[in-house]
Each structure stands twice: as C-alpha cells, then as structure tokens.
Design brief:
mainly alpha; protein transport
C-alpha cells in the first residue's frame, strides 16, 4: 500500500492528522531553535534580567523575573501538548467511523462479499495507526522541550541569584 492509498482509505481524518503532524513538528522545531538560541545567549539574557531587578533582591524576586522571561519561551508548547492529546482521539474517531461503515455495508450487502466489510475495517485500522503516529512524537517532543526549559530555568535562576549575591557582598 502506498501513501496515496493510505490517505484515501483514512479519509478526512487522515488529512486532519497530517495537518496536525506538520503544524506540531514545525512548532517543536521552532521551539527547539529558540531554546538553543536562548542558551547560546544566556549571559546576555542574564544581564537583561539583572538590570530589571531592584537592589537587594531576594531569591523570590529573582525567581519572579526568571519566570516572566521563561513564560515567553513557553508560548506554542500548549499546541504541541494539545496535538499529542487529541490525535489518538481522532484516530479512535476514525476507528469508530470505520467499524460503523463496515456494519452498514454488512447490513446493505450481507456477508457475501467481504470486500465491503474490509474497507470499513481498513479505515478503522489506518486511522488508529495514524493517530498514534502523530501522538507519539508530539508527546516525546513536548516532554523533551519542557525538561529542557526546566533545566534552563534552574541554571538561569542560579546564575542570576549568584550574581545578585556577589553584588550585595
């Protein structure tokens, strides 16, 4: 079976899943490149945060400033999380539609020609597979990017707080 047949048998649900796959992969690549850029310019970003801090700032003030900076980096990740969550549900919807189609064809044509029944079951399996193919990389990518941001936030906070403590000394 080639890709064109795969898409034809999956119907509109496959097209939606393909669009979600492309959209999500673009967001994940964009976020990854932004995070790499942020890490490469971490010293400059720290200086920007330090300039905003008032004199004699405590750790809570540092955390607040860092949290605001990191919040802007999180933009777009919710879309990846949503794609990871709803793509298996769309696959399941395709499964239900395919099985329904199979039973309708049985009621109309009987069991004399199994190809009518097989088309619905084929759609059911293809949409299930496609939903999982979309969900798995988005789930992994989302968790990887969130872990990357958590590490970055921790090191960023530590670096700024160390600088603030050195200024106070």
């Amino acid at each position: 079976m080639n890709l064109h047949q795969f898409i034809d048998q999956g119907g509109v649900i496959i097209l939606i899943l393909i669009a979600m796959l492309g959209f999500g992969l673009i967001i994940m690549l964009w976020k990854f490149l932004i995070l790499l850029s942020f890490m490469m310019k971490k010293k400059d970003r720290c200086k920007d945060c330090i300039e905003v801090l008032p004199q004699n700032s405590d750790i809570s003030m540092v955390e607040l400033v860092v949290h605001e900076k990191m919040h802007s980096l999180e933009r777009g990740l919710e879309s990846v999380k949503i794609i990871a969550t709803i793509s298996p549900l769309l696959g399941l919807l395709g499964t239900v539609i395919g099985i329904y189609t199979a039973f309708v064809s049985i009621s109309v044509h009987g069991l004399g020609d199994p190809s009518f029944f097989a088309d619905g079951i084929s759609m059911a399996m293809i949409t299930t597979i496609a939903g999982l193919i979309v969900a798995i990389p988005h789930y992994v990518g989302y968790n990887y990017l969130v872990a990357m941001m958590d590490k970055l936030e921790l090191s960023f906070t530590q670096e700024i707080y160390t600088y603030v403590k050195l200024q106070d000394a």
